[in-house]
Amino acid sequence: MFTTKLSDWILLAPELFLTAAGLLMLGISVFLSKAREEFLGFVATLSVGITGALLTWVAARPDRKTPILAGSFVVDNFALFFKGLVLLSLLLAILASVRFVGRAPYPGGEYYALLLFSGVGMLFMVSGNNLITIYVALETMALSSYVLAGYFKGEIKSTEAAMKYFILGAFSSGVLLYGLSLVYGVAGKMGLPELAKLLSSTERSNLLMLGILLILAGLLFKIAAVPFHVWTPDVYEGSPTPVAAFFSVGPKVAAYAILARIFYVAFPKFHADWGLVVALVAAATMILGNVAALLQTNVKRLLAYSSIANAGYALLGVLGFSTEWGLWGVLVYLLAYTFMNFGAFTLVILLETKGYAGESVSDFNGLAQRNMPAAMVMLLFLLSLAGIPPTAGFIGKYYLFTAAMKAGYAWLAVLAVVMSAVSLFYYFRIASAMFFSEAAGAKLQSSYTLNAVVLICAVGTLVIGVAPQPFLAVLKSCVLQP
Amino acid sequence: MARPALLGEALSAGLLFLCGPAAGYLLGKWLGDALSLGRVPAWIGAALGLVSAFVHLVRLTSRVSK
Amino acid sequence: MDFSHIPILSIITYIPLFGALAIVFLLPRENARLIKTVATFIAVLDFVVSLPLWWAFDRARDGYQFVEKASWIPSLGVDYHFGIDGISLVLILLTTLMGVIAIVCSFTAIEQRQKEYYVLLLLLQTFMIGTFCCLDLFLFYVFWEVMLVPMYFLIGVWGGQRRLYAAIKFFLYTLAGSVLMLLGIIALYFYNTTGFLSYKGLGHAPTFAIETMTAVAQQMPANLQIWLFFAFFLGFAIKVPMFPFHTWLPDAHTEAPTAGSVILAAILLKMGTYGFVRFSLPMFPDAVRHPKVVGIMVTLSLIGIVYGAMVTLVQKDMKRLIAYSSVSHLGYVMLGIFALNMAGVQGGILQMINHGISTGALFLLVGIIYERRHTRMISEYGGLAKPMPVFATYFLIMALSSMGLPLLNGFIGEFTILQGAFAKSFWWAFCAATGIVLGAAYLLWLYQRVFFGEVTNPANEKLADLTFREQLTLAPLVILALWIGLYPRPIFDVIRRPSEKIVAIVGGATMEAPAVASRVDEAGGAVPSVSADAPGAVRP
Description:
The complex is a heterotrimer. Chain A has helices at about 5-10, 15-30, 35-60, 75-105, 110-125, 130-150, 155-185, 190-200, 205-220, 230-240, 240-265, 270-295, 300-320, 325-350, 365-370, 370-385, 390-405, 410-435, 450-465, 470-475. Chain A is mostly helical. The relative contact order of chain A is 0.09. The mean pLDDT of chain A is about 90. Chain C has a domain at about 290-525. Chain C contains 22 helices and four strands. The chains are: A mainly alpha, B mainly alpha, C mainly alpha. Chains in contact: A-C, B-C. The interface of A and C includes residues 408, 420 and 428 of A.
């Protein structure tokens, strides 16, 4: 039996508000006609904004550090950072979707509502301090994502993407749940700090190791690491591009948050066991992600494989959890990654001609001649993704390489830098099309909201690259205390 | 490409998969012994030999398919 | 002149950047004349502002001068740290001069997208000067990497037939080398602070300052030094370019526009050798002294010299010929550096400057003739001395300078390098001398085929001789070639102290060669100062 106080519920204000906003969205959309759907986008943006304000208010409260709800929900700096990142990706996704939702023949209210609900799931995920809470929140996010992937009900590719995502996602969730149950079976508790205490005195048992491995497998699916990455290219290609952009940042970042929290807080003692596994997975992910991207002509698939490769780099940080650079590096990299990846996807949205499918690299042809600022901004994102200074991507990668070296995985660091260099090849295929090609490409159709998104991402990428110190200092304070 | 030439190319590509890593390993071993760096350069050499065999194969297939 | 309160190095570095931004935001695309004028003005301003450094620099003082330091990323221990010594000083002056020349020579060569072109050239200037000024390893890496981006675009947009291939090859090849250097830097950082792998760290505060890092690296155990030497080696060797990592060079040079080739040859290639002199030698002396390492480096340099020269001999494209000759010339520089004595190191550094001057000029000259005839094939030319006598004269002077004829700059550099190599081994000098002979062969043969004899191709009969603007780009280089050839002492004075320091660290004895010195004396009083006056200058 646990008791709650009013002050506890106050800490939940952002999540509660966002849920209400999502429900309100569903309600309003019944009454609005298709033509007025931009208003819905405005409402959605406003909701995210208010949620952000509530989050800041919660952050300023002095009593927020203690876990509430029987220790299953905690608002520490780590959670705050990730909540901020989740809200940022929600905001970018909503702004990027406004024009697209307005043009698509499907109802927009459900779209925004699903985005917001997915956001609620993510907000609970990153604050979760208890295996069950994390799982339920993960499912909330995942179910909303599955439906979002299939938003284009009439297009076969979208439906196929949704089916693949759903089936594979459900399967991986089952695996995750099984792992959780095994760990519960051994330890008898679900709370992460309790687990840490109990497991530190327990012997290694096969059951426990199996449980941890299954949890790892389930989470690796969500972050799209090899060999659980198969869903990513198809789902990203089939989903509407703003949805794909959202998938590549929001859920991935939140999944990393729970991976970090579970493995940093609850299972640190077993680093020696799962360390090698994660190292091999990271190596395979980096190799496969980069090599497969080399062969792609469809930009969405290319970016999908690139995000797989990025997941591989971030796993280097996970390996370094025993050092001060590991978790810090993951935070820095995820921040940089959100900006640069979403920016790249937005440029693809801007160039979409046939409205949906077939975004190939040749759409970027001659962009520099037609619209130099757009080409320059895309170049910035590509440089950042490849890890060329002075961009945010370079700072993030620097931290990850440092973490890997410090943790003793020098061979992995060498592999990572080599793969990083290789990745330049396919990123610059896009740059080459933009700047060197004389052929005709797709027309750039901009709108205020899309321009705003691009601007936010570009500023973020550049500022973090050139003047990273403030961000680094803030993120240092967001690292979990084991 | 003519059939005998194709066969020759394919065999040479296969042979390179054996000789490349071997040569790289030996070269690396010499380097490691000369500079007292242990066995690591040998493995780096073998890896580079493997990569070069792959690159040769990729170039061959792209040439043939053209 | 007292520059202690003015951040003169930052000013020199960022003037081109501000010029580029001004052109981007303030000038309209259509007014090409205005863009060219502004770009030239910026470059000349930068050169003029950098000139006082030559006189303000104190040649008798050890250590770095005009130092600026500000905290940039305290969490990592990175500072914004600028400063120069003699070696960077001469390279910076060469860069600012070449910047002016590159911009002026492009006026008629580039017809389309001129605004972006001049912006990219100016950006490249900033990054190159910044690389030479850096005293912080992290900052150095940033400048080193970001330099590749404008060069990639310069080759890819305004280049020749195979420019796309050449551009991406250049970028990828150079990037692959430098990322391993990044790991080397991280390893150094950890050795300085908390240690990594099985190496216990020194426990100092985190920093990337070059002076501190050099001292730290010298304390490393020998085998770790060798590992890091090779990590850095790859990054620098590709840039030099050393055999067998040179294959990006011919394509990049041939396909780049004239100004791109000039900058590539004159400055970018020097980054590799500068890296060896500034980082590899002082930081990893145990590795550098190791006989096998020296053997490998010298062998690769000699192969570069001789093989480079032999391949140059058979080229049919003028630009490709000069590109391969760069491989050969920089083999000399590397040989000089790895002779690890005063003569070798000083000769190597001087030859860096000389190569920049002579090869830069040769690329300019080829660019000029290419603008007229739009072909670079030697077979298309013949007897050009008749319609273009002034051009032929300039070409002759710079070809002789490249080949190392006495009275010109190339001789001083090559001779000093041979001195250094001879002091270590007769065979090194012998092989290098073979390279000199081959160098004379390919240059003289080129000259004969292109300029002497009758005008075989009617298209060549009416070619216009050099315009005033073209002569303006070439004249400074000819003057420099003659000046250094006749009176190299000022340059040797500037680089003496840093060379002494380097040689002292790697433990080579300072070289005495009185018999040789007297012969050089007859050539006009130009004696390279070989430390006969500083016996006590061995400072560990």
